[in-house]
Amino acid sequence: MYPAVSLLLHLLSLRVVLAATIPVQPNLSAGRPDGAGFVDNHITANQSSLVYDSPSAYTGPLNAQKSVLCDGANFGTGLNLRSCVDAVQQLNRESTQILSFAPREWTPRAKYILPMRSSSGDGRCVIDVVSAANNSPPYYASVRMVRDAAMEIIQKCVDGRGVNDRGGFVGQVGIRGTLVVIVRKYEPMVGCGKQPIGQNKCRLVLDSLPADRVPHTYGPEATKGIAVHTPSLWTAGTSLCLAKVEIAAGQWVDVATWYDIWAAGEAVNAMCVRRGFEGIAIHLGQRRALAISLLKETPRPS
Description:
This protein is an alpha+beta fold. The protein has helices at 3-14, 72-75, 81-89, 143-157, 203-208, 258-271; strands at 69-70, 99-103, 112-114, 116-119, 125-131, 139-141, 168-173, 179-185, 190-196, 215-220, 228-230, 232-234, 241-247, 254-257, 277-284, 290-296. A 5-stranded antiparallel sheet has the order 1-7-8-5-4, with helices on both faces. It has a 5-stranded antiparallel sheet with strand order 9-15-16-13-12. A hairpin with a 5-residue loop joins strand 7 and strand 8 (179-185). The longest helix is centred in the middle third of the chain and has 15 residues, at 143-157.
């Protein structure tokens, strides 16, 4: 057995809570990570933050690939073994029940909403579940099937030595082989605030966000030709979590896909909300002027 694989299995058997030891981005100076001045929170810009979330990575050979294929060009290089183990640990290995998976727009609502993402505590290794092309929802699989597929990818593609650590994917997952599992690199720009928020409170909100890959214009309501007015506020059910999409002060328009916004929200959830705090992801969109915050929503009067 390769040393890296042995280490991986050892960490999983111990069920080490790696998120507590993975460094996070600096906290915001303000108590809450919202407001028009979010660009001044001293988080360094990174123009490549979304480079490994290219929509083109979901077409072509992904659909029929039954064995693991490592692909650093589409899914990133330099993946951290510990981060990827942490992302796997977020998937319940005991869950063998066959459940439904379907896109957001599908009704009736499935148990798991696609695209589905499991993120490491530092946000830098993510496991995505998407549907293969030319298959009608809903799709059926267990979380254990998804976890096992992700483990297989990590064992083959992330050797832990920093030489050939790269993302990859495997297809034909689940009942009738209608799902694709991807392990990829992600580079979020996230800061956590000081305001407490209940852990696991934002899943419903994130699952309600659009995740299409069509570019939309974002900006204040007074700006002409805007598809999404900012701030754009999202809530869901009784989760008491508010997702807030906004544009930086002094900026009037930016272009982004809802997929990019959703992916950044998933990073905030993994890096901040999972630890019990509000958070924000910045430098989104073509001009890096957009941000998404996950905040504690004030309960409405009954």
